Amino acid sequence: MRDDLSFLDGSLPAPLRQDRIVSIVEGAPGLVRTASLAAALGTSEVTVRQDLALLDQEARIRRVRGGAVRRGAGSPERPFEETAVEHQVAKAAIGRAAAAMVRSGECVVLDVGTTPAAVASALVAREDLTDLTVVTNSLTTALALEPAVPRFTVVVTGGTLRPLQHSLVAPFLGAVLPMIAADVVFLGGTGLDVEHGLTNVNLPETEAKRMLADAARRTVVVADGSKFGRAHLGVVRPLEDIDVVVTAEVTADAVAPIRAAGVRVIVADEDGGAAPDGRKSHA
């Protein structure tokens, strides 16, 4: 009878345990956290991490920060935790340059995604900023902003939770945004090109991004160079409705057509940051 209870006491043989991990991850819509797997398997998080490393090497699942996701998913959308570890230096530079465009007393809207999250961290680091209101539909971004309260007022839009990006989308997203007249919105996306402007792989989040942009007077796109020249399913904003693009780790050839279309482009790891009005800082 003890053998029948082996799953409960954590003594499931490693091959069977790993097969079960694959089954759980394959059946999940997005990220499966290490702690959840450990609880489901009745084993330690250390053991699960070792299993995930092996399964990733065998290309049976994809290991990401905090857990695992399935391989070969039908949608090209990737979990927040997976993209968070990519282009980290570029995103930090973009965050600092974007945060330099913000003044005390303003109302800022922050989109979902790892690059807007970098903007949030850079805003928190600016100890000179006071009386700032930040509106976001990202639970991750809201938590990143929490250390700046009460210097900042952080408003979470509400809406329906999407676990893949920890984002809030319609329905109910639109209840708060029509009541807000923000100074600037910082938008992320998965593609930026001349023909389509800013695009995104996911339609519910595309709709949410449009609503965020409609709540602000100025639109600033924050995107590293890997997004340039790409177009995806949902059109968020055409180039004519984008005021500034803040980027990094990008080639001159990629930037040239965006600038030729009349959009100001700040290359954060080249321009040395931006002044509050978005112009290059010479300080």
UniProtKB/TrEMBL annotation:
**Gene Ontology molecular function:** DNA-binding transcription factor activity
Classification via SMART domains: DeoRC (SM01134), HTH_DEOR (SM00420)
Residue ranges annotated for the HTH deoR-type domain, each copy included: 17-70
Keywords, A to Z?
A: Transcription, Transcription regulation
Keyword Transit peptide included in the entry's annotation: no
- Among the Pfam families in the record, one is DeoRC
What SUPFAM superfamilies does its record include?
NagB/RpiA/CoA transferase-like, Winged helix' DNA-binding domain
Out of the domains of life, which is the source? Bacteria
Gene3D superfamilies reported for this sequence? 3.40.50.1360
Q: Which InterPro entries match?
A: Carb_Metab_HTH_regulators (IPR050313), DeoR-like_C (IPR014036), DeoR_HTH (IPR001034), NagB/RpiA_transferase-like (IPR037171), WH_DNA-bd_sf (IPR036390)
Q: What is this protein called?
A: DeoR faimly transcriptional regulator
* Organism field: Curtobacterium oceanosedimentum
